[in-house]
Every structure is written in C-alpha cells, then in structure tokens.
Amino acid sequence: MIINRYYFAFILHLIILSGLNSQKVTVSREISIKNNYAYDILPNIGDHIIFYHDRGIENTFEIYDKNLRYVNTITPEFEKRNIQPTGVLPMDSVFHFYYSYREEGDVYFKIRVYDKNVYLKDTVTYAVKDKRNINSNPRFAYSKNKSKVVVFTPDEKFLNIQLIDNHSLKLIYNFNLIVQGVNLKTDFEKLLVTDEGEINIICRKSSFWDRTDADGFNLIRIVNTENISLHRFTPESDEISDLLMDYDEKNKRLLFAGFTSTGNDADCNGYFGFSILPQDIPDEAEILINKFSSEFIAEATGKKPGKIKVLSDYRLQEILPRNDGGVIIVSELVKEFTRRSQMNVPGQFSDQFASRGFIDYYHEDIIMLSTFPDGKEHWKKILFKKQFSQDDNGIFSSFFAFRTPSRIRLLYNDEIKNNNTVSEYVIDPLGNAERKSVLSTEYQNLKLRFRNAIQIGPSSLIVPSEKTWKINMVRIDYE
C-alpha cells in the first residue's frame, strides 16, 4: 500500500519463490536525477540515509529515515559557486565532504563535517597548492575502516598524493611521487590505502602501441615518504590481460588476481590469484599461473573439448579475501555489439545520424575461481545466467556480491525488463552453489541496478532502481 507517496515509503513483504526464506523490501519515493552530474547514497548516518546530488554548481542532500521515509532536503552554501567535489564518506553519526576550489592563484583543499540532519559541524582546510601544479581533477580513495583518505592527482611527470587522517582531519603528508621508468598518468591502474596508512599502487603498460613490459605489472608500495619501494611481477608464461588488487585487513595481506593471454586481451587461457604480506614482497617475483584445462573450457563454452583453446570476453569483476588468506575471483562474460539500422547508414541523412549506433549488451555466465594464499588452485565453479539489454550501457545487468562471514550471495536480475525476477547464487567456502529466487518486481515499477548496490549490514542492502531520470532507493532485508 502507498501512503502519501510523495513523502513516505511503501513497504512490501515479499516471500521468495522457493518458500524457504523471506525478505522485507522497502522502497523510497521517486528522486529526480535529471540535472545530476552524479549521485551517491550515504547509509547508516545515525538513523538516517542521505541521497547526495552533484548538480555541478549545486550540491544537494536529501534526508531519509532508516525506513526510507523522506525527511528533508538541504542545499548548503560554499565559499565559491563552482566547487569541485572530491569525495563524500559516511561515518557513524556524521559524513565528511571533501572538495576543492580555486581562488586567485591557489587551490584550496577542504573537508566539511555534517551530521545526520546535514547540519555543518566543522570545516577544515587541510592543504593549499599553487593552481599551476594542479592540472587535473583530484581523485579519491579511502581505507576499509575509513580512518585514512588519499586525495591524489595524476600528472605527466608525477602523482601528487595527500594522505589525510579522516578522524582528526589532519594532513599526514603531501608530496609528489616520481618513479623512474613509470609513467604515473598513462600506466596508472589502481591506488589503495590500508587502515595503517600504507599506500599501494599498481601500474602496467596497457597501450596498444607500446607493449613493452606488458607481460607483467609494477607495484609501488609507500609506507611513508621516506620508505617507497618498487616491485615487479611477471607471469611465468604469457602476459597479463586483466588485473585486480585489494587488501585483506584481517590477515594484513595484499591480494592480486588476473587473467593471462597470448596477446589478445579479450581471450584468457589461464589465471592467477594469490596473497602476500607486504613486507615479504621481493623486488622481482614470478607469478604462478593456473592454466584452464580443455575440459573446463568445454564446460564453460558448451563446445567439444579441444575445439576452443581459450575463454573469450570474460572480465574480472571482484576479488574477495578468504579467511585463510586465500583469494576468490569472480569474473563475468561481458559482450557488446554495435548495430546500425538502415536509418543510420553513413551519409544517408546527416553527419549526426551517420555517427550514431545502437549497442546490444550481454552479461552472461559467471566463473568463480578460488586459490590458496600461495596461488595454487582450490576450486572453480561456473554459474550460468543470461542477461541481454539494448542501448542502456548495461546498467541493469551484472550482479552484486553480498558478503557474509560464511557465504557469498551473488544477486542479479534474471531478465532486463520491467516485470522481472531477482535471483541469487549462494556459494559456500568449498564452492558449493545453490540458486534461489529472491523476489519479483512484477507490478512494482522497479528496474534494479544491482551493480551499484550498497551493503549496509550483515543482512541488508540498498539497490538503486532507475527509470526515466528518476531513482527509487530499494532496501532489501533478509529475515
């Protein structure tokens, strides 16, 4: 039942089709994002959930209670009209808003602290830099417990790094990183920061025209400004076609995962996944590769063994730590095809129509790979699904990995349409998987974006539902 739709949420109790469990599903009112550059959902700020709108010259915060009932809208005023939002980070009872702005010859880097009602509690200027040294927009990373924040800006010759203590709101250090032989702008792939404030950066040659050293990758480890080291990882065979990195805070280990190929990045003939204590990383290391057998490739492709030598179009999507320090890798079959209609034949009407195409998106089977900490294979599993959509950038496809101490739940839309069933694969530590139906969106006017879901507790998540420039926040609670 809907009660005063514009100000309240409606709550639906849906029984999963298997009849074994139930979920409570709560849906917010419609939120317009027509004029947004970006948006974010900030959960668990006290007993509030805040929807953040980045509208360029305006930054607006809509406040909802824990049951997604609308409370208020706040649009704060800033020092300048054109601020540059860097990142927004929800804490326990407040949230921190990082931003910068230019004034005369300087760039000011600032943090604002707001409470659950978007009341301003504090403002801190943590750095001021000459604007001639800032040639691109700052980027944002934070540690898992949110105690450390890194604001970093890539440049042709260096990477400017600002490490901030997110509790005291004080700058720990601010320096320009230069690494001989590494282009920190073109080769940069990912930066992560640990709860202790150590920074790890992976870089690799990815240019189509420059395959020098493309077989491996570099790891830059920053303990502090006086302790910076460069490490080189090379696969024992072939070259790396896809790469992920994460950090396991429980076991204090760096996690790495990747696919290998013989030169075509769309194909993979093997994989690696391992973890290592940062202090044990050698200057140069060879990576153990687990090759895909012809039998496994046949099972994944549905072809006869030996007919196809590689897996094609699989992308690494998630790297998850195991309790024993091992690694679980989640990959997905993703394909895009551009098609043209007769109305869009080049030169038939105008240049505007000639350059326009239509795109089909396929997000299909999932392959999960689990290794021991040293990289040796433990188990692997193929989870079958089939998602197809057109001209939507695939935003309703793919899956969300919901994590619990003993299980991984992969939630996804069965089909990309208005009236749809949501399903999940539940995977245990030994790779045993069970497929379940979770809920139906029939007659609810919902299109769920699971790839943008947020886990807000051990049994709860929020999923955006988007239709025609409007968002509903959908909360799913497992009971």
The shape is: globular
Give the CATH topology of the domain at 44-178.
Methylamine Dehydrogenase, Chain H
Supply the helix-strand structural class.
Answer: mainly beta
- Helicity level: under 10%
Low-confidence stretches: 1-20, 345-355
Indicate the proportion of strand residues: over 45%
CATH superfamily of the domain at 44-178: YVTN repeat-like/Quinoprotein amine dehydrogenase
Please report the distance between the alpha carbons of the first and last residues.
21 Å
Can you walk through the features of this model?
There is one protein chain. The protein has 479 residues and is an all-beta fold. It has a domain at 44-178: YVTN repeat-like/Quinoprotein amine dehydrogenase (Methylamine Dehydrogenase, Chain H, 7 Propeller). 3% of the residues lie in helices and 54% in strands. The strands form nine sheets. Strands 1, 2, 3, 36, 37 and 38 form a six-stranded antiparallel sheet that branches. It has a five-stranded mixed sheet with strand order 16-17-18-19-24, with no helix packed on it. The longest helix has 8 residues, at 294-301.
Topology:
Elements: E1 10-15, E2 22-27, E3 31-32, E4 38-45, E5 48-54, E6 59-65, E7 70-74, E8 84-90, E9 94-103, E10 106-115, E11 120-130, E12 139-142, E13 148-154, E14 159-165, E15 170-177, E16 188-193, E17 199-203, E18 217-224, E19 227-235, E20 239-248, E21 253-261, E22 267-268, E23 270-276, E24 284-287, E25 290-291, H1 294-301, E26 311-312, E27 314-321, E28 327-339, H2 351-354, E29 358-371, E30 377-383, E31 387-390, E32 400-403, E33 408-413, E34 421-427, E35 433-440, E36 454-457, E37 460-467, E38 470-478
Parallel strand pairs: 19-24
Antiparallel strand pairs: 1-2, 2-38, 3-38, 4-5, 5-6, 6-7, 8-9, 9-10, 10-11, 12-13, 13-14, 14-15, 16-17, 17-18, 18-19, 20-21, 21-23, 22-26, 23-25, 27-28, 28-29, 29-30, 29-31, 32-33, 33-34, 34-35, 36-37, 37-38
